[in-house]
Amino acid sequence: MANGYESLLQMVHGFWVSQIVRTAADLSLAEHLADGPRTAADIATIEGSDPDATHRLMRACASLGLASHANGAFAGTPLLAFLHKDSPLSLRSYALAQTAPGHWLTWGQTPAAVRAGRTQSHEVLGMSIFDYLAEHPDEAALFGTAMTNLSTPVILGAVGSLDVSTIDTVVDVGGADGAFVLELLARRAHLKGVVLDLPHAVPGATSAAKARGLDDRCTVRPGDFFEQVPEGDLFLLKHILHDWQDEECVRILRNCRAAMRPGGRIAIVEIVMDEDAGGIAPLMDIAMLTMLSARERTLAEFDALLAQAGLRRTRVTQVDDSPYAVIEAVPA
After folding, report:
1. 40-47 and 51-63 are packed helices; what angle lies between their axes, rounded to 10 degrees?
2. How far apart, in Å, do the first and last CA atoms of the chain sit?
3. Where is the O-methyltransferase C-terminal domain (predicted)?
């Protein structure tokens, strides 16, 4: 009983941990400790934070395995390194975005969301999360980077499963920073790419293409995938459909089908739910309910969406040992 009690207590305190991690990221502890141990007073001087409170924060980080403490100084751990902004698997922006007001306030209404079967974002933000981000560009930029960071392992696993040898143009639909299509372009010199997203995402995608030296082959277009999608041969839908209800998903898929050149296809990268799924999948499903009135889906549910959009599934490839899969579809 004691072990169960302690386990549940840790779950209840989960939001404490989230805010400690958020503060560690905000004070750039991973960056400050990257070259060796520092005292809390050192960090406080650099960051302009209260010395005593900074010491207490770093002591809490040590209790979580983010730091170690010896001889009056703190050292970073491999776990803390994932909060470093330059880590190839950085979760810094994700930690900050998930605990920023848009997400934090909406998650606070999860009981009401479950009772009502829909997000309570309008009740706490006055609008949908996407409209909120459009009005808060700093948080939107943070969220865009966070999604890119979170997607990195999935993208690296997914690109290897896609045969692009006979196609010319890849459209990253709702592509944010364009990380998916840019990874494909970096690996295949014959490809051209298009990133489609709302206007607030354009600067980030443009900068990312330039940073990778791919801006000569990648075009960034502001637009709304509910209205129209640019013409192409392969349409990437990564972490898009789980943001929307069925009717909206069908509209997105139909717009992709309408813009598809002969021989083209769609590649959907999403969690594929299983009723007995563990790990992140059922938790992400609640996140979609709470934030967007949306959901994660089973393969049968994806097939139903595809059929309504005039498409049929041709292939499913699991992305490594994750719950994500690449679902490829062509016109029915």
Report:
1. 120
2. 55
3. 107-311
The model's pLDDT over 22-67, given as tens digits with 9 standing for 90+, comes to 999 999 999 999 999 999 999 999 999 999 999 999 999 999 999 9
Report the percentage of the chain scoring pLDDT > 70.
99
Cβ neighbours around 88 below 10 Å, total: 10
- Comparing C-alpha atoms, which of 216, 157, 206 is closest to residue 185? 216
- Whether 67 and 74 have beta carbons less than 8 Å apart is answered as yes
Q: Are 102 and 139 in contact (CB under 8 A)?
A: yes
The rounded distance, in Å, linking the Cα atoms of 75 and 67 is 5
Residue 297 identity: R
Q: What is the pLDDT of residue 1?
A: 52
Q: Show the tokens assigned to 8.
A: 């549940």
Cα–Cα distances (Å) from 167 to 41, 171, 201, 226, 233, in that order, read: 57, 11, 26, 24, 6
Catalytic position from the list 55, 103, 239, 242: 242
Whether 2 has a pLDDT exceeding 80, the answer reads: no
Contact, 256 vs 233, CB < 8 A? Answer: no
Is 242 an active-site residue? Answer: yes
pTM: 0.90
Given this model, what pLDDT does residue 205 score? Answer: 92
Q: What is the C-alpha to C-alpha distance for residues 221 and 194, in angstroms, rounded to an integer?
A: 7
In a 10 Å sphere around its CB, with 0-12 CB exposed, 13-18 middle and 19+ buried, how is residue 226 labelled? exposed
pLDDT of residue 145: 86
> Do 91 and 55 form a contact (C-beta atoms < 8 A)?
no
H helical segments located in the chain: 2-12, 14-26, 29-32, 40-47, 51-63, 78-81, 92-98, 101-107, 110-116, 121-125, 129-135, 137-159, 179-187, 202-211, 246-258, 280-292, 299-308
